Amino acid sequence: MELGSILVVLVVIFGALRVAKWILKKVNWWLYEAPLGEKQYLLPPGDLGWPFVGNMWSFLKAFKSSDPDSFMRTFINKYGHTGIYRALMFGNPSVFVTTPEACRRVLTDDDAFKPGWPISTVKLVGRKSFIGISYEEHKRLRRLTSAPVNGHEALSAYIPYIEENVIAALEKWTTMGQFEFLTQMRKLTFRIIMYIFLSSESELVMESLEKYYTTLNYGVRAMAINLPGFSYYEAFKARKRLVAIFQSIVNDRRKLKMDGAIHSKKKDMMDSLLDVEDDNGRKLTDEEIIDVMLMYLNAGHESSGHITTWATIFLQEHPEFLQKAKEEQERIVKKRPPTQKGLSLKEVREMEYLSKVIDETLRLVTFSLTVFREAKTDFSINGYTIPKGWKVLVWFRTVHLDPEIYPYPSQFDPSRWDNYTPKAGTFLPFGAGSRLCPGNDLAKLEISIFLHYFLLDYKLERLNPECPRRFLPHTRPTDNCLARIKKVSSIA
């Protein structure tokens, strides 16, 4: 073939590729934007990306790198600091909101927004869990379950059990040599949440549940590819096993109730869910009970385990903050009446500096980087329109790491909370509005009790302090904090 003919063929191929690329880039516009008519010109700036995949590849690429914030930074660099951007995420046309005021409005306006979690996530967590039910159902279930989780009486009752397990775990860890601190911390928080919700189960059941929850969480923020070899496929299998275990527990509890044996033990959350009925006398179905339990047990140990781990790491990395926190705990013990054994809820609520340590850890780690909502109607915000049916991703991570809100945001500095009350929308570790995390007080109680005993008598020695981090499904050291726990001298 002559050179001229080869050039012509190459030009044709190159031209065909450019046309194909243009068509592919237009597919999502034809699917999602063109049907909006004139409203498409009021959409936030952004790009829906490639067909079906949308912006997911760039999201996963960024969050599997050492710089997860590069994902949102590409929007800011390309479209400016508008605080609101459009994209295609988890198979849906979506809008990111990244400013405090926009986040507050979306989270607190229940008339304009409803939960908008991806269908794939709802299938994993449960369509009858808090992320899948309507506002009315959520309000009812939250009212029924809040007192046994966050009430003053309940929190006070949980303290002795949490203390007992924290003390035993710390002592055991000093004999283990090197171990994965995060892994053991998650096992500890899982044991605690199991006691609160199910009183007690066998070690075998607890180990199975904890293992399946780990697999489930890896699939929650993965692409919803339900084929062997993909995280979502394994997560879906894990959910089926979890549901089977919970169904067995529900069946056993119902039999105990019928036999009248339920009154011989402490009443727990499972008992409450079996007993509760609405104003019309309707009781919860097995599916409702199982999905609520599955959600609570997951959220109740993952967040507490990770945040406690990071608070411990940060304190050990900053001796000046560790010493200040330690001195506060020593003062609490020294002024305790001689007849008192263990912590009281009053003492926990007097841990002012430790509370700042926990808040700073929650801000810096941002355990949940986003929550999902869906516009129930066309909604105007920041001069743009969010169309009805589009998803809204409230991007907590950008708010918590905004240098205009938190100077030097990547630094761990509990003193930034001295005489500081965050403005609405600037601190969202547990969300906001009617769907604020129902277990926030319990989580902070667990973290506080662990840090109390750790600060008094122990220290953490990491084996790989410079090891990189992973950011999906949650921020963690790649070695799960391989470390040793050593005992130090107690207070006089």
Automatic annotation (TrEMBL):
Main location per the UniProt record: membrane
Keyword Iron-sulfur among UniProt keywords: no
Cofactor(s) listed in the protein's UniProt record: heme
Functional pathway: Hormone biosynthesis; Plant hormone biosynthesis; gibberellin biosynthesis
Entry GO terms, CC: endoplasmic reticulum; membrane
SUPFAM superfamilies (UniProt xref): Cytochrome P450
GO molecular function: ent-kaurenoic acid monooxygenase activity; heme binding; iron ion binding
Any Gene Ontology biological process: brassinosteroid homeostasis
Database matches in PROSITE patterns: CYTOCHROME_P450
Gene3D superfamilies: Cytochrome P450
Annotated residues for binding of heme: 437
InterPro entries recorded: Cyt_P450, Cyt_P450_CS, Cyt_P450_E_grp-I, Cyt_P450_sf
Job of this protein: Catalyzes three successive oxidations of ent-kaurenoic acid giving gibberellin 12 (GA12), a key step in gibberellins (GAs) biosynthesis. GAs, which are involved many processes, including stem elongation, play a central role in plant development.
PANTHER family (UniProt xref): CYTOCHROME P450 26, ENT-KAURENOIC ACID OXIDASE 2
Assigned protein family: Belongs to the cytochrome P450 family.
Name the record gives this protein: Ent-kaurenoic acid oxidase
Natural source organism: Dovyalis caffra
